[in-house]
């Protein structure tokens, strides 16, 4: 193989168990949107369920349907839809639909009538993120529509949820303000006769730093994959988490060049001495950020080096000095860090982004290799 992504499914199961322990009586909805943050939707979802997740959460309806098509019958919530989406299959397959607006709950109800079934919905309240969710007076309209459509039998309002703006800064005043407004929204919905089974607001950062916000369920994503949502407060290990992803490529060429040789497009790196350059067959088409040009870290034969020159579409170069390296040498871009290799956080710091983006952007053209005990559960199943 030229370049690949290894996923430790046991790490995912372990992380969910750890998050569940921290959440106390609250259940865990493992968020597996974005192809499970680049880790592979179905295998990651199965590992999360094995680790004790009671629910799965995705942004897009198509992701929810993929999980059902793979035979996963766990409770499932999808929360990001544009007008005109066909809600029929979701209703048929018992998928909870997160609704932030009257137009959406009306369309869900219409699809439910057509299907002759009751749709399961969860109301999404905007308590200060100002993104998806019913804001201000729109909340009142959504609550009234929900009560009316539930009385008619078109929908069953199963839950209510919201999302933090500043969960990664637990002392920020909005963290408390959003909890207070959420409590008001919950009370308001219950006063309108809605029997809420699940009330939830905590992403990974809130699950780890604001346990008082757990309500009935927490919704961690990043921490499921073993990464820290609050790198300024702690590494994964500080929170009992194990990073699940390792990214490796094999050198295609290793060559000696003299001092003064410019490297890669635009020659933004120039060799200082005679040295060995190694070509690594991964680039921005694979998800390696071009912003990591001249700063991205790698590990070759146990030693750390830095990307030399620009990251190209399919490859980049590393200057390994006098290290004896030949074509085929494994180059580790990122991993858990136990063996001295760089982490997703190191890449995020180098490229000026967050670890979420580093792992989620790893292209699906890189094969996913699943390891760990739960990999056995994947035998004979299409993965990735
Ligand atoms: C992505 C997302 C989550 C998970 O966020 P993390 O920071 O990865 O834990 C939870 N809830 C909603 C609504 C989301 O969009």
From TrEMBL:
Protein name: Alanine racemase
Annotated binding of substrate, by residue: 131, 313
Residues recorded as bearing N6-(pyridoxal phosphate)lysine in the entry: 33
Keyword Cell membrane: no
Entries under PROSITE patterns matching the protein: ALANINE_RACEMASE (PS00395)
One Pfam family linked to the record: Ala_racemase_N
Alphabetical list of InterPro entries matching this protein: Ala_racemase, Ala_racemase/Decarboxylase_C, Ala_racemase_C, Ala_racemase_N, Ala_racemase_pyridoxalP-BS, PLP-binding_barrel
Highest taxon in the source lineage: Bacteria
Gene encoding the protein: alr
